[in-house]
Design brief:
Blueprint lengths: L4 H82 L7 E6 L7 H9 L3 E8 L8 H9 L6 H14 L2 H8 L3 E5 L7 E7 L7 H16 L3 E5 L18 E3 L5 H12 L5 E5 L6 E2 L5
Parallel strand pairs: 1-2, 1-4, 4-5, 5-6, 6-7
Antiparallel strand pairs: 2-3, 7-8
Helix pairs in contact: 1-7, 2-7, 4-5, 4-6
């Protein structure tokens, strides 16, 4: 009988190969079971954490609903009692209104003042075109002046408002101001409200035009700055270091109440209205 050693070598190799595959499969099965147990533990832990978070979320949702309901109740109370809370508080007071854009709406300011018994002494819009190239030359020609700087232009405008002289009419004719109600008896004005509503303000306009005029008026009169809401313009923040009261929700009853209270108490300074981050409303209060 002839023995084929090649056959034996192949057979033995096949046996060892099969044995190796069996060991590998058995080993893999053991590892898979371990991984499976670990995965099950992880999934269980995630489920437990999710249930904890879900419980907390439900509790916070209930608390938020209670807070929202309370805020709505306070808002409705304020709206329904605005007339009572501000009645005759501005009786005998003359208030001036100045804005820097024709788009600024003075309706809420007007109604807040008049409903509280106050009188609107004047309403003037100072336009940014005051600083346009050639404006000083036109004004000099009309008024026989020798103005050569923005500071002199600002002084001319504010002096014209204070003194109610013909210069204001000329500035109006040239289109640099708009007089909706002519100033009169400026000395009798107790406060001036600046409307800061336009959302397209540049820092240059604020620093070169608005701040200097506000500062100029502030040296003689009590000043309050208002705007419709915290998102309409962020420029109210620019005035926070001027030690004056700013109100950013004049379109709401709480803002109008704040305005009236600030107008009767010049010691009230700081920012009032909606907080842009957490929607909390701060109201100016006076005894």
């Amino acid at each position: 009988m002839h023995i084929n050693f090649k056959y034996f070598i192949v057979s033995i190799g096949s046996i060892f190969l099969a044995l190796g595959i069996g060991i590998l499969i058995g080993s893999s099965l053991g590892n898979n079971e371990t991984i499976q147990r670990q995965n099950e533990a992880i999934v269980k832990d995630i489920d437990e954490q999710f249930n904890v978070l879900k419980t907390k979320d439900n509790e916070l949702s209930k608390e938020n609903k209670i807070l929202k309901d309370n805020l709505d109740s306070y808002r409705k109370y304020i709206e329904s009692n605005q007339a009572i809370l501000t009645a005759n508080k501005l009786s005998g007071k003359n208030i001036g209104i100045i804005s820097f854009d024709e788009k600024d709406n003075s309706g809420e300011v007007d109604s807040a003042i008049t409903n509280a018994g106050g009188n609107i002494a004047f309403r003037v819009i100072i336009k940014e075109s005051l600083f346009e190239k050639g404006s000083a030359e036109k004004i000099n020609e009309k008024l026989q002046k020798n103005i050569s700087s923005n500071t002199e232009l600002i002084n001319l405008v504010t002096d014209s408002i204070k003194n109610s002289n013909t210069n204001l009419n000329v500035l109006s004719e040239l289109g640099y101001v708009k007089v909706e109600k002519m100033p009169g008896q400026y000395d009798a004005v107790s406060s001036v409200v600046f409307i800061n509503d336009s959302g397209s303000k540049t820092k240059k306009k604020i620093n070169d035009l608005e701040k200097p005029i506000i500062e100029n008026i502030k040296n003689e009169k009590h000043v309050v700055i208002v705007q419709s809401n915290p998102n309409s313009s962020d420029s109210a923040d620019e005035f926070s270091n001027m030690k004056i009261a700013t109100i950013n929700n004049i379109d709401q009853s709480s803002g109008q109440i704040s305005l009236v209270n600030c107008l009767i108490n010049d010691k009230l300074t700081g920012n009032y209205g909606k907080d842009k981050e957490n929607n909390v409303v701060t109201i100016a209060v006076t005894k």
